[in-house]
Each structure stands twice: as structure tokens, then as C-alpha cells.
Amino acid sequence: MVRKLLFGLTVLLVAGTALAYAQRDALLGMAIRQRVQQGPDMGFAKDHDGIKVLICGTGSPEVSSARAQACTLVAAGGKLFLFDVGDGSVRSLAASRIPVNDLERVFVTHFHSDHFGDLGVLINAGWIWGRETPLEVQGPVGMAGVIAGYEQAYALDETYRSANMPHLAERRAVARAVPLEIAFAEGARVVRVYDMDGVTIDAAPVAHDPVRPALGYLLQYKGRKLFISGDTEVSPVNLPAMQGADMVVHESYAGHMVRRAIPEMRQLGMEFHARVAERTIPYHADNIALAKQAQAAGVKQLVLTHLIPYPENAVVRAMYTDGMGDHFKGAITVAEDGMVLAF
Ligand SMILES: [Zn+2]
Ligand SMILES: [Zn+2]
Fold first, then answer.
1. How far apart, in whole angstroms, are the C-alpha atoms of residue 288 and residue 257?
2. Which of 11, 69, 72, 322 could form a disulfide with 83 if both were Cys (CB 3.0 to 4.6 A apart)?
């Protein structure tokens, strides 16, 4: 009985393989059609009549194969806004089928490398893959220098590709990045940097000394309010932007874990790592202080990103927010790369 069954399966397998071989051209055609049609589309931006958030990177300066560095994509009013573009962001957006050539604008919070490391890839890929308008990249004063630096870094690439593909040379002028620098008038706390079709975006300095300026962004649409903190300590300067927010995507620092890790590192002779960890304490948002501030500001949902240390498994993830619930009564979400939230 078993032998008969095996014989039957073998015959089926051979017949199937022979058929597939005979039809390989048709199969290749199907595969190609599927691949071509599988491209990115604006579905993410169009299918929700509110604010939608894709956490495209939860990382920190720590280089990781498992997650991208700082990256938050927001859809509102049918448009896509990208906040920070750390290493791995473009790959992460591609994994979520986001059409990176159709971004309305990119916003950079500050010039720590984990917040703009993939900007060159984004600009360059847009040129190569058909972006039809300049890419607006807005950030603190210093933005123009960063863009100019990327242009210089990609200058030879531009020469080679343009020589090989004249259609790229023709489109070079329109597919460039345009830096928009945010200047604050003396004493100004907030600058409106975007106001179109019901979507407004305000920039406000946060507390990330010695990084000056470091900005957070407040996006509002249809009475909904989203604050993206960038990197910041928990500070009263952020209270106005957080006040009554439906969602706050905030950098997060599990101080109780880092403080435990430092003596362990020293015991293992990892003095260099221990020193790095110590220096991160003063300028990141300790989870407990953040929970208290979110409660005081009446935040509805707190989404933790820029996770330090990265909670690598379910157990650590569960302990990552220890104690926060005692102080904050809204929803707490520990973000993951690829997570989508809507409100
Ligand atoms: Zn950072
Ligand atoms: Zn930073």
C-alpha cells in the first residue's frame, strides 16, 4: 500500500515537473506580470480618512539587521509625509510597498546620523526609479549642507548613469532634493512648516542637548493630533505639542534596563560599552518620566519608538514598559518595524 502510494506520488511529481518544464515560458510570463504589478501604490495613503502611521524604523544608533533606524511615515489627506530617514528606512518602506517617489515631503528632526543616514539612498533611488518632481527635505538649519554633501557623494554615480541612460540625465534637474531649512525667529517656539488641504505640520524645538536645534513635529488633520518627538529628554518644552494629542510617537528609553546593564558590562570588561550607555542616560526619554508627562498632557495613545535597549524577544518586550501603567492611563504601544496604526 505504502509502496503504491509512493509510486503514485513519484509519477505525479515527474509529470508535474515535465508539465512545468513544457510550460516554462508561460510560467515565466506569469511570474514577470506578478512582479511588475506588485509595485508600490498609494493605497496606504488613500484608504483611511484620518491619520495613518507606519512605523518604518524603531532603531537607535545601534546598527541592527533586524530593524531600521528612526523612520515614521504618516498618511493624511491622501498624502505621504516621512519623518526621519535613518539607515534601513528605504528598505523598510519598500517592504510595506510605500511609493517612495510619491512622498509629499521628508522631515528631518535633527542631524544625528540615525535620523538621516538613508537620505542619500532615498534621493538617489528616486532619481533612478522615476521620481517626477523634486523631493522636498525639510529640517533644522544645516539641512542644505547635508543635501549638498549627499550630492557630492553621488556625483560620480550621476555621471556614470547619465552617460549610460540619457533619459536619466534629462530628469536630473527635476529629480533633485530641495532642502528647506526651518529658521525660528527670536523667541518663537513653533513654526508652521506645512499647511495644505487641511493638513498642518508645526515644528517645535525639543530638548536634546547638545543637539541644537532638534525638532519635534506636530501634524494635525480633521481635528486629529499627532506629535512625533524625534530625540528628546522628557521636558516641559514638549508639553504644548503633546497637549490633548490623539497619538504621540515618542522616543523611548528603558532606563531601568540600561542601569542594570551598565555594571554587568563592567564585570565583563566592556568598559567602552558601559561608558557609551552611561552617556545616553541624560539625553533620552526615560519611560517612567515619559508616562507621567503623557498623563499630564492628556495623551490618548503613546507609541514608543527609537527603542533603547531594543526588546529582542517577547519577555523583554513585556518588561520594557514596566511601571509605565502606574502613571499613564492611556494606551501604550511598543512599536515594531512595519507596524501600522490609524486614528
Ligand atoms: Zn536617535
Ligand atoms: Zn539624537
1. 12
2. 72
Q: How far is the CA of 197 from the centre of ligand 1 (A)?
A: 31
CA distance linking residue 111 with residue 177, whole number of Å: 17
pLDDT digits (tens, 9 = 90+) for 98-111: 999 999 999 999 99
Ligand at shortest distance from the CA of 69:
1
Domain positions in the chain: 42-342
Interval between CA 192 and ligand 2 midpoint (Å) = 22
Q: What is the pTM of this model?
A: 0.91
Q: How far is the CA of 142 from the centre of ligand 2 (A)?
A: 15
Maximal C-alpha separation, the chain: 88
Distance 86 CA to ligand 1 centre (A): 9
The CATH number corresponding to 42-342 among 3.50.50.60, 3.20.20.480, 3.40.50.10540, 3.60.15.10 equals 3.60.15.10
Which ligand number lies closest to the CA of residue 114?
1
pLDDT score at 96: 94
Residue-wise pLDDT tens digits, 146-164 = 999 999 999 999 999 999 9
Tell me, in angstroms, the distance from the centre of ligand 1 to residue 254's CA: 14
